[in-house]
Predict the 3D structure of the following.
Amino acid sequence: MATLGLIGYKDASAEVRAIYDDIMATRKTDWINNFWQALAHDPATLRRTWQSIKEIMAPGALDALTKEMIYLAVSATNQCPYCIASHTAAARKQGMTDAVLAELIAVVGMANETNRLASGYQVEIDDRFKTVDG
Amino acid sequence: MATLGLIGYKDASAEVRAIYDDIMATRKTDWINNFWQALAHDPATLRRTWQSIKEIMAPGALDALTKEMIYLAVSATNQCPYCIASHTAAARKQGMTDAVLAELIAVVGMANETNRLASGYQVEIDDRFKTVDG
Amino acid sequence: MATLGLIGYKDASAEVRAIYDDIMATRKTDWINNFWQALAHDPATLRRTWQSIKEIMAPGALDALTKEMIYLAVSATNQCPYCIASHTAAARKQGMTDAVLAELIAVVGMANETNRLASGYQVEIDDRFKTVDG
Amino acid sequence: MATLGLIGYKDASAEVRAIYDDIMATRKTDWINNFWQALAHDPATLRRTWQSIKEIMAPGALDALTKEMIYLAVSATNQCPYCIASHTAAARKQGMTDAVLAELIAVVGMANETNRLASGYQVEIDDRFKTVDG
Amino acid sequence: MATLGLIGYKDASAEVRAIYDDIMATRKTDWINNFWQALAHDPATLRRTWQSIKEIMAPGALDALTKEMIYLAVSATNQCPYCIASHTAAARKQGMTDAVLAELIAVVGMANETNRLASGYQVEIDDRFKTVDG
Amino acid sequence: MATLGLIGYKDASAEVRAIYDDIMATRKTDWINNFWQALAHDPATLRRTWQSIKEIMAPGALDALTKEMIYLAVSATNQCPYCIASHTAAARKQGMTDAVLAELIAVVGMANETNRLASGYQVEIDDRFKTVDG
């Protein structure tokens, strides 16, 4: 159970409701998941986190699906159960198929492996990788 | 300096050279970066790792650039300096622009933040996120 | 369920009971949480861990509440569910209010974000930060 | 070297300079450390990150020194060299003595140890730790 | 519940069944644990992962028990609940006693502690540790 | 450079010298590596850490080499450069050959991969793995 409990829409202050409304409108959904209901105990963090997420996850140089997949890749690497569950759902809503999910997880697994091969063998960075121009 | 040193092409066994050749042919490049030269002390791991990378990173349901970006997202999350340097270069070779890099890192940063907000508040997974159908 | 099960006070050896007694006396409580009951299968580790915790968490240059908050910050970063639950309770016992908890988690989240921005952009340490005198 | 290089004050756009000015004014300093100069390639992330840091790190329920210590605890746990160096300096500026630093690191070390003892033994969360009231 | 569900032996394709058969034969067991049943949705990853595991975990310069203990040490460090549970069982099958388990976890805990003491104090690598010859 | 600098034998207090002497005698060596010289600014932590290391790393149910290999596996997983360098040297001193090192790193890499496959697919723990008897 969330440390401070959850704050549902009915019990929320006007300030929190306005953020909930924006979340639902932006995401074209009619419910608020537990993450936001837990954060609502700290309206300043709720507002700042939502504004950041809204800005960062909007399509730009990267499309929304790719951004959700990157979010999921980070969450799987960190082994955050809540985040894996919620961003798997979010990526699917953006169109992630099972085949894409499978390839995504395969890359995440492999990257976690070679990260440790590189550190385990104490491999030095190649000079060619150090230049600003790549 | 890599724990066991590096094995350059000239000093490599025929077995290792064959893998080096395949790496260069697959990647359309004429050099072998330190990671593989360090792994070459263990030809079985060199071969297995290369075969896995070659299979996983080939375009499929996801294109090669997206896969490299996911690789970079994992490496930045794990804070593996070698891997960040090498996969930044690899993603650029696949077409990652500076604008894409910036959005990618922004998502990685945000995901690492909300992963800890979720764990810090001990947020439980919503029932809607638990179904197989998402 | 803990790998080796839990050892309650009644079933504990005299050696383990003495440590349980010291834990309860030091913490001014009348029960032993699962962590210690799981460790009790290895009395040497139980004793060493308790002695270290007792020494480290005693008020010194830092007060007990600040130490518990740091403990919680680490546990949230590592996403250790048991540790987050137990140290949230411990910090509250030391006087952590909900407002303090909220600010603590906000800092933990932000630090985890900027840690990856720094690594993602491969930022070099400023010379001014390298001096012993700070 | 930072992936995209650093943008010094002289070479910065008016938008970036305004943020640099606010950073220096808020921190009562006359220079901009590499982190911000690297982020400046992405003005949106520079602005958002600075605004979040400014809001989160301002004294509130927790004082500025405690917040910097929590930041440092997270950075040491994540083993982010840049972040450890910069937040060690920042915490010292807020008054962290060597004695405080030593106790802080001792707590961080111990928390990282017991986090793995708890996970290694698969310890279940005590019912008493699950209640909202702690 | 696994994201894509589990694929039992009865419902598996011939390709997947052949891998299940090899897993059971190699491990001298008559069941397939959830990990492989979840991976079976991606036969390419199932095959590659099993082949790598089979090759890596076979006795060589290190015996099978030591390899399982290293696997468990990594899993406890990463705090992966599934992996800790499954590799605790696997190590026991290879002969890990409770006394060995206790010493293993003690080392894992201590290593996680000193890793952060080293990073927290920003300790530089000794020149003597940098030579290829160790 | 270590945050508080290093304290060499000549400049050390009698209390610190006694610990340095015990380290050198126990390890049959004639020098003190940077880690301990950095910790020496906090004699309580120096003493406690050394006593714990001395107790934990002594041969018991596990031999000294296996313990060093587990230490190295954790350090490579955490990507702690200092710890990887120092424990690679320590393990070699205990007899780790290059062939053993290669197999060790291969297992560490694979474990880090499958840890994320398990979390990425949200695999539930098998009932058979939950029993105390394994």
